[in-house]
Amino acid sequence: MGKGRVLVTGGTGYIGSHTAVELMAQGYEVLVVDNLSNSFLETLDGIEQIAGKRPVFEAFDLCDRERFEAFLKVHTNINAIIHFAAYKAVGESVAQPLKYYRNNLVSLMNILELMPLHGVKHLVFSSSCTVYGQPDVLPVDEQAPIKPATSPYGNTKQICEEIIRDTLASGSGLNAISLRYFNPIGAHPSALIGELPIGVPANLVPFITQTAIGLRAQLSVFGNDYNTPDGSNIRDYIHVVDLAKAHVVAVRRMMESKTKSNLEVFNLGTGRGVSVLEMVRTFEKVAGMKLNYKIVGRRPGDAEQVWADTRFANEELGWTAQSTLEETLASAWAWEQYYTSKHPDRH
Ligand code: NAD
Ligand code: WQD
Known about the structure:
Oligomer: single chain
Structural class: alpha/beta
Strand content: 15-25%
Bound molecules: nicotinamide-adenine-dinucleotide, UDP-4-deoxy-4-formamido-beta-L-arabinopyranose
């Protein structure tokens, strides 16, 4: 008998696939739903190779309520849902806001409507440090004010948190834990799964590794005139495996009725701020090569510096990010090399 059945939405995606692996390693039965809009079926092979078992998988859109309900009628006795499925490209959300509002809000509303009808009690929601904008106080803790969102994507995370809060307050009988991720990077140490951006990466680390492997000519560092020690932006970069493990803890906490209220919110970061130029230097050290980069102007909408106060997660969840930045960047580089060796024609 396993420890419980967990539905992972967006489970062929970056964070979802790593979480599926950690759940299976801890004895949970995992079911994955993903419409493959931003991921590949091949990820299931990687999960299977690592975990020694292939999760149940169905490809459909969670916005399709009827299809989702049919799934829940077949796959009964699900204890918890971890809801990763969402669109996440900040720039695209500015150009196509309704695409983002529809996908991210409707999928969550379907989940919240269907959970009580099918006896699913516990929800883990993927939120983001983006809800804090540029915090007034650093490190930022969970009580910090939510700042007006700087993109429709960020707004979907704020609205989703409100939708969850209001639904739980209405006496739905559900429990939820909202996890505010800082900047997830890196890959599984096996290099069998990792981050797979489609097209030109918008995020720093995939851009660094794709530049190092020769797919991109040069990394642009967006600004060195910020009010930070070296002038570049500061972020809290967390290893995706550390992040994945926190989801297992969150599910266990709800299933064992250890929560202090029916809605809990935790920051998931390392508690350490690292600048873009430090990221470049650390990558150069672990990969043993020089990276071709140039300083360019600021990217509109970037917060100057953000890093997490992780004490609440450390104390309440008994969880702390373990990996060093060197290990984390080395894992991202190993994954880039492995994936490119398997797909030499990628561009
Ligand atoms: P990802 O794009 O790799 O994974 C999301 C998965 O959801 C994809 O596989 C996609 O195909 C699927 N999906 C999207 N809409 C769907 C729908 N309607 N029905 C079914 N499947 C759908 O993204 P990720 O980096 O793994 O992010 C996971 C979650 O964490 C997202 O909610 C994201 O907003 C949030 N988050 C990510 C970051 C980050 O930097 N990666 C930071 C903070 C929060
Ligand atoms: C990190 C730093 C850039 C690319 C985004 C979302 C946020 C959250 C995490 C989901 C910044 C700099 C980047 C490049 C650069 N996602 N950079 N050159 O912007 O902190 O957060 O992902 O919720 O909502 O906004 O992450 O990786 O894009 O950037 O200099 O080519 O790297 O300016 O300082 P960001 P990022």
